[in-house]
Design a protein that fits this description.
The protein starts with a strand and ends with a strand. Helix 4 packs antiparallel against helix 5, helix 4 packs antiparallel against helix 8 and helix 12 packs across helix 13. The protein is built from 13 helices and 22 strands. The model has no long low-confidence stretch (mean pLDDT 94).
Length: 461
Amino acid sequence: MSFEIQFLGATGEVTGSLYAIRTATHTVLLECGLVQGGKENEERNRKPFPFDIGEIDAVILSHAHIDHSGRIPRLVRQGYEGPVFVQNATKALCEIMLPDSGYLNEKDAEWENRKRRQKGQAPVKPLYTLEDAERSLEQFVSAAYEEEVEVVPGMTLRFLDAGHILGSTIVELTCEEDGDSRTLVFSGDLGFRDAPLMNPPAKPPHADCVLLESTYGDRLHRPFAETIEELTDVFESARAAQGNILIPAFTVGRTQDLLYLMAENYARWNLDDWQIFLDSPMAIEATEVYSRFRHLYGAKLFESGSSLPDLPHFYRTRTPEESMTINEIESGAIVIAGSGMCSGGRILHHLKNNVWRPECHLVIVGFQAYGTLGRRLVDGADTIRLFGDEYRVRINVHTIGGLSAHGDQQDLVEWYGGFRNRPPVYLVHGEPEAQKVLASKLRTDLDAPAFIAERGQKVRI
């Protein structure tokens, strides 16, 4: 029994995950994520899918992040009627994230069409709508970790814990025919060994082919103790300067890690002097999902019997009116808001009110893709444009690399090292330089047959 995998997305970049797996009789899509990172890149989401949608028998998602799941509603809108296999918690998170994505697409189209009307240009349609997203969720089929599921005849799926975010999975696919079998293992996004909340990634012992993410394939994260010290310094500096702290955070994963660390270090960071705002309706809902599935991770985030993090002076601001009141606070506010790359959402309004203030601090806690506002701030931009106006950047910008939900080079190499038979490994979901370094490391340290996946490339397993 053999099958073929074709790399259609997240090759030489970290968003837009998309792979096709073909047997003699069936085609299964692995991932269907949005391309992110600036307007030019995001326009690629409107291009036709690089396959015949009518040939797709099933879809498998490794986890809920939009760069892995975000084109599912578009796929369904264009005619896909089959199942979408996900882990149980991933389904619950997608029920929040995909409708939100559809809503934002509608709003983006409305905004664009206002400008187009003024110029006499033809209107654009949203990539997909909230209704499209809600309809696509009816096709989701969920499974527990370790549960065996038949995807199509002759192909069996198992989800293993990837330790990245709630419900994140390593995807193990086994194709069998007449007693002969082949196994593909896709790492999904692997978690960091010192992740505050999540369990360590599972290590399957055997595969005939491996797809490995490579986001941080060229670097090591700082030791976690140093990350805690770094955050301590940020809080002390901001407290002394009597400013505010803005934290653009991904609504799923990073936000919950931050809330846990704040509870764990409440006294050390003198947080009794601060008001902590979770200013994101989606992050609030996602945190409630973390409460429902707290059996999937070991750390204690919530008060017993409560869906509220174990934090005094903690406020959830759901409405725009509640969010706007935060901007009346000149000192002593910690604001956790989306989006994680400062590419939209409420964080832009908080930047408008604080980016020009030297007593304030901006804490970057996640990957910032090329082309995003977050990346420009990390790279030291002197000025930025917000809502049509230019602002001088005087806020103190801190990049806290040790909070990444992605494993670093050590994690990636050690995870692959768990395969006793040293299968061929294809690097995906990484920028070119990170992939070159990781491929060399895998070859040198483990004598691995390591390759960098190329877009359109087909590999027979």
